[in-house]
Write a structure and sequence with these properties.
By secondary structure, the chain is mainly β. It folds into two domains: 146 residues, Immunoglobulin-like, CATH 2.60.40; 220 residues, Jelly Rolls, CATH 2.60.120. The protein contains four helices and 26 strands. It binds calcium ion. Calcium ion binds next to loops.
Length: 391
Amino acid sequence: MYTAQFPLPTYPTQPRRRFFMLIAAFTTVTLLLTTLTVFRGTPARAQTACDVDYVLIDWRTGFVATVTITNNAPPLTSWELTWSFNGDQTIVHSWNVAITQDGPNVTARNVTYNGDISTGESVSFGFQASYSGVNEIPTDFALNGTPCNEPLPSPSTPSPSVTPTAVCTAPAYCDSFEDQTSSIPSGRWFMTYLDCQGTGRAFVDTTRAHTGSQSIRVHGLPGRCNHIFVQSTLDLRTLGPTVYVRLWLLSTNPLPSPRTTLISMTDTSTGGELRFGGQYGALLWHRTADDVTLPAPIPGGLSYSMPLPAGTWNCVEYLVDRGGFVRTWVNGTLIPGLEADGVPTPNIDATWLSRPWTPSLSAFRFGWEAEAGDSVLWFDDVVFAPTRIGC
Ligand SMILES: [Ca+2]
C-alpha cells in the first residue's frame, strides 16, 4: 500500500474524475482546498481479500472522505469496515453508512441498502470530519475483521479465517465447558438468581454437547422467580468498546408467548440490563432501564425477527458497541428486526433509538426467565470477542 499527495495537474485519470465530481459537490470547500489525498491498495500486486480507496478533500481543520471498499473474497451480505485515526479526527456527518467512533477507533457498517458486496464489486460511502494537527491516512483498514490492502498468504500458509484459537487470544474468551468438573457450573461460571430464587436449575451436562462432550443444561420453569442464569466471571468491558458474543443454544420447546429471557447482560450505563429472548414467539432485545424492545413487540415489528427453532442447535451471534449499535445473526443470517443501526426504522428501532444510549456491558449471563412456559435448554461454545466470530 502507499499514500501519496499529488499536485493537482498530475492526477491519474480515475482520481481526477473523482476529484471533479467531489468539487462539484463541495464547491464551498473548494476555495479552501489544500490537498487531495488518494489512498489505495498497491496496484499490480498479490491478491488481497479487500481493497480500500480513501479519497480526501482536506482543508486543514476538516476533511471529507470518500471511502470505497472492493471485496475480492466471497460475496458479503453485511459488512463492517474498521480503522483507527492517528489523531483527534472526529466524524461529524456521514452518508451511505452507519458509523460509530470511540476515540480514534471507527467502525463503519452497511445500511439497509448496501450490505451486499459480490466478489469483485465495490461499495462507497462518505463522511465529514474535523481535526487538528496532522491528518494521516489510516493504514489498518479491516473488512469484517480481515485486513484490507494486504496480500493474502500464499496457499502453503494457514488461512486467515477466524479459528477458535485465533479468536480466543486475549482479550477474547472462549468456553466449551469441557473443563467443568462438577455437576453444576463452577470455575469461570456461577449460578445467579438476580432478584429472587425459585426452582430453576442449571447443570453440567454430559449427554448433549455442540462440540466435545459437555455443555450446560438449564431447566427453565414458568414464573419469574423460577429463573436461573449462569454468569461468567469475565467483565465484558475488558473486551473494549465493541462486544461480540457468540453461543450455541438448543431449546427443547419453542419460546412461549410471554416475554422470555435467554441472555442477560448488566448495562452499567443505565443500571439496568440488556436482555435477549423472545416475546409472542419471536426473538427480541429488551432494554430494562426504559422497558423498550427491539423490534417493537407488535406484528409489524416482530415480522422482521424470527422464532428460535426448537429441538436443534442454533448459533446466536450479536454485537453491541458503545455507540448503541446492535446487530444480531441467527445461524449466520443477519436478522433485520434485531438491528439498531442508528437510523430510526418504524416498528424496528425507532423507539429503541428515541433516547440516547451508550451501553457499557459488564456481566454476562445465559439461562431462562419466563412469566409462563417452560423448556430444557443446552448452551455450549460461548465466545466473547472484540471482533466478529462467526458460527
Ligand atoms: Ca462443549
